[in-house]
Amino acid sequence: MDINFELYKVFYYVATTLSFSDAGKKLYISQSAVSQAVKTLESKLGQQLFSRSTKKVTLTPAGELLLRHITPAINLIRRGETQLTDANNLGQLHLCASDTICRYLLVPYLQQFHKRYPNIPIKVTNATSLHAVDLLEEGRVDLIVTNLPNSRLNPANIYRRILTFRDVFVANPAFFDLSEKELSLADLTRYPLLMLDGKSTTSEYLRELFLRNELDFVPDIELSSNDLLIDLACIGIGIACVPDYCVPKNSADLYQVILADEIPHREVAVSFNQKLPLSGSARAFLELLPSVGEV
Predict the structure, then answer these.
(1) Within 2-106, where are the H helices?
(2) What secondary structure letter does DSSP report for 54?
(3) Is it the case that residue 58 has pLDDT exceeding 90?
(4) How does residue 89 score in pLDDT terms, banded at 50, 70 and 90?
(5) What is the pLDDT of residues 199-210, one digit of tens each?
(6) Which CA distances in Å does 146 have to 123, 157, 161?
(7) Structure pTM?
């Protein structure tokens, strides 16, 4: 089909704003021009892309399908423009990771990168490991650093592992005097448990682990931050499950619960979309990261 790219561009802005007037403002064209472009595209495709009413605009199933394909194309063009115009032709470094991975793992490497390339802009998007995969597939970020296993991650896009770690359960001895006891996973379910919410790879992994042991895993508190889980464990709210690398060292308020059932190690990996060109800045950042084995 010979369809002008500008029609797809107009469609993208209407689809992402769900407003003909807002799309017109972003494109610096009139609302009527936006409406005409959408009608032309719908006519050429033989599909209705939007459901229109006096109060709102929504995507039809056909429109949602088209948006999933158009978004990576738009982002690829934007990345190409950025790589052509940014300093030293390395391009902006844009990566995505969870707040825990950013804080406890990436800060030293970001510091090294900034010191080595002070004129290269750095953009960090904070998202769960699961949502980070969506951003990678859409071409909205250069790299993601994610926990493994990750049910959404395409194995073809995994670059390499950069860390192995273990999930541990921590508690305040003043409230849970278990430091001399060895607990099974079944024993743990009798205590108030604190963990990341269900939209995280950690939650997916632990629920599957408990399910394999025929245990019903129902946390008392689910949060989006490991730091908050640690804070709540310190004040005795419950026993928190967190990665071992973010547990404070030599804390009088926390100890690690001894488990009879050893929880297997997990990994942190860096990944990029093999279908899209990688910016020079992303390649330079990859060179700074450690490796614990190819995936």
Answers:
(1) 5-17, 20-27, 31-45, 61-85, 99-101
(2) S
(3) yes
(4) low
(5) 888 988 988 999
(6) 17, 12, 9
(7) 0.70
The dihedral formed by the CA atoms of 120, 293, 160 and 286, expressed in degrees to the nearest 10:
10
User: pLDDT of 112-165, one tens digit each?
Assistant: 999 999 988 899 999 988 889 989 988 889 999 999 999 888 888 888 899 999
> From residue 267, how far is each of 41, 122, 137, 282 by CA, in Å?
45, 25, 21, 21
| Residue linked to tokens 């390339």 | 117
Backbone φ, ψ for residue 169 (5° rounding): -105, 125
Rounded CA separation 283/87 (Å): 15
Beta strands across the sheet bearing 143-148: 122-126, 93-97, 143-148, 266-271, 158-165
Structure tokens at 206: 């632990």
Residue 140 near residue 75 (C-beta atoms within 8 A):
yes
| Alpha carbon distance 38, 17 (integer Å) | 14
Q: How many CB atoms lie within 10 A of CB 104?
A: 19
